[in-house]
Amino acid sequence: MALTTSQVSTKRRTLLFALATATVATAVAASPATASPAAGPGTPKAGTTGPTASGLDWHDCQAGRDGTHDGMPDGAECATLAVPLDYGKPEGRTVGIAVSRIRSDKPTARRGTLLVIPGGPGSSGVDRLARKGEALRKETGGTYDLVSFDPRGVGDSTRADCKLGADDLEPAHLRSWPGTDGDISDSVARSRRIAEACARNGGEVMRSLTTANEVRDMESLRRALGEEKLSAWATSYGTYVGAVYAQKYPERTDRWVLDSSGDPDPSRVARGWLANMSAAADDRFPDFARWAAAPERDAQHRVAGRAEDVRPLFLSLAKRLDGVPERSADGKGQLTGNRLRMVMQQALYSDAGFEQFAALVVTARDAGDKPVPYDLPSVPSADATVNMAVVCNDVRWPRSVPEYARDVRADRIRHPLTAGMPVSVTPCAFWKDRPADKPTRITSDGPSNVLMVQSLRDPATPHRGALKMREAFGERARLVSVDAGGHGVYLGNATRAGEDDKRAGACADRAVTTFLTTGRRPASDTLCTTAGTESR
Fold this sequence. Notes:
The chain is an alpha/beta fold. It is built from 16 helices and 13 strands. Strand 12 and strand 13 form a beta hairpin.
């Protein structure tokens, strides 16, 4: 029977390119590429002229166009905020930012607004609030109105589309996985083609998709909400957005939580985040190996008899599958080495992905030399556009193809699990537009009101990168590390299958909730373990 990714939700499937180009926390809504944002009564429409809206016209939330926002709590409100396409031309064309809100159910306890900053680039904050809103409201006890947004280019906000071809939207192609023996020639050709398509079709909206503009849009949202300050819970790529906002508008930050941070080095930004995923996979894979070799696993999920045998088996299997063509003679998809590697990397984000990944490995192992049918759904072109545009517009990437080839050769030796993909060439190497803004350097200037929380074995934003963010903030921040695996910490962001991980995660949850509700942070950096909290 053919194995597919049909068991994975549409929202996770559209995330696949984001997992490779930058850090990721939540899934991207698969919205029609050309749709306009749904505006509430009296809300300025995208594409019109006029200054940033001074307020928001709230209305009852409806499900997203594809049902993405089902599950929004009763009483949730939605609106569209018109912001300048180009903040250098505030009276010019506007774009629409979709916003959602869950009001505090205890007005007397209300402190202000807590902004949920989504990850990605390319994740829907409106969707994230729909999924996490009830738990967050319960955890914070009505201390805040909970607000989130779809960044420009995402979900119900104004979209852009590079109009990429079907082959380029295959998830294993959008990720720059090298070919057999590390050859990057196909990735170079594809990256050139994608960059040219974006230059030809992306338009002004695509060129406006940057971290700097997302931060400006957040400040416009703060003013529209009428709040003097914002509190925030940012996850994954959203932690970089949150850090830049805290740097640009320190006087506008109240209680600031950064969950799963990357290295904010302004000379590299997303290129550095992507490169760090090689070692991050090495950090996390042993968790899967122990799970997949546990005696209680059934035959369909037990990859090997011992945990130490899982990694060599996976590497051998991926190498053998490198010789399998992507399509059979009758045009059906087949499991290749890079498709297996891609599924592996995605599965490491959460223990919840282990079962499906193990089943795929066992099937391929037992198939011997027989091809394994395997199809992957294409990523919607508009979703791929926003993922690429933000990371390519933010900073200038190296142009030298030989440099990428050299880096891939070295990285494949040091980190064979990811086979050189994290340092391989991307469309950013051939991007036509130069960054409009210089990347922001994060410093210790500002109030000491940042709480960072981080898993020790994060496959996307490794702990070593978070230490760089902590170092950059200096005394502005405290770091709560968690002896657990997976991407995302607060409120079970990464499903914790093991009891040990659950206990360590509960310790981190308490630290974040205490900070959000009382303002108290640990006196020093701490580590949450199964035994409790330790100073570091």
